[in-house]
């Protein structure tokens, strides 16, 4: 399979995904036990070239965040799968967007996927004024890598949670190549900064899960 892709660096926003990706959510209603929340993440990405900087935005599809209690440790382990539509990412430059979608092969790879696998809740919920840190998996085209994100700016109520996740996305790690330099003078930096603002809320299904009744329906 040909992996020599070309396009502008904005393309890398899809990553987030991940996250980005890729982060999980928590509610006070679910502390100390199993829970389920629904939410989305708003994505922003920033990169630089020798000519200028660039930025773009996107939003993930709705995801379901679930927490289960590990009987051995007593920890609440959080997990979710987050999908971002490749062509749901965009900059203000239409020509640039076309290059981005071509680079990501949106026809063959219409989504970018991130997974959080059984991460202890405390890794996602840092003490005030500090940053948490958690691992996640990110798939771009046909390549999956393990990355690390930080979490911060937690704001909780009895039925909702918002927080910020950030991570560095390496183009070379996913074998993504920026456009050929113009006369060798314009080059893309390898690292693109990705920020995801997660917004989640406890649903009626989540409440049922917490009380040991019917769990939240799995999102297709």
Question: Which secondary structure elements does this structure contain, and how are they paired or packed?
Answer:
Blueprint: E1 5-6, E2 15-20, E3 35-48, E4 53-59, E5 63-69, E6 76-85, H1 94-104, E7 111-120, H2 121-124, E8 132-140, E9 143-156, E10 160-170, E11 176-177, E12 191-202, H3 204-210
Parallel strand pairs: 1-11
Antiparallel strand pairs: 3-4, 3-5, 3-12, 5-6, 6-7, 7-8, 8-9, 9-10, 10-12
Task: Provide a concise account of the structure shown.
This protein is mainly beta and 220 residues long. Helix content is 10%, strand content 47%. It has a single domain (5-210), classed as Lipocalin.
Question: What can you see in these coordinates?
Answer:
The protein is mainly beta and 220 residues long. Strand 9 and strand 10 form a beta hairpin. The N terminus and C terminus are likely disordered. The protein is built from 3 helices and 12 strands. It is 10% helix and 47% strand.
Largest sheet: 8 strands, antiparallel, barrel
**Tally of helical segments:** 3
Domains, number: 1
From the spread of the alpha carbons, the general shape counts as: elongated
Q: What's the CATH architecture? A: Beta Barrel
What share of the residues does DSSP label as strand, in percent? over 45%
Order of helices and strands: EEEEEEHEHEEEEEH
Number of DSSP-assigned strands: 12
> Reading side by side through the largest sheet, how are the strands ordered?
3-5-6-7-8-9-10-12
Low-pLDDT sequence parts = 1-32, 204-220
Radius of gyration: 18 Å
CATH topology: Lipocalin
Output the CATH homologous superfamily: Lipid/polyisoprenoid-binding, YceI-like
Helix content: 10-25%
Query: Termini separation (Å)?
Result: 28 Å
Structural class: mainly beta
Average of the residue pLDDT scores: 76
CATH class placement: Mainly Beta
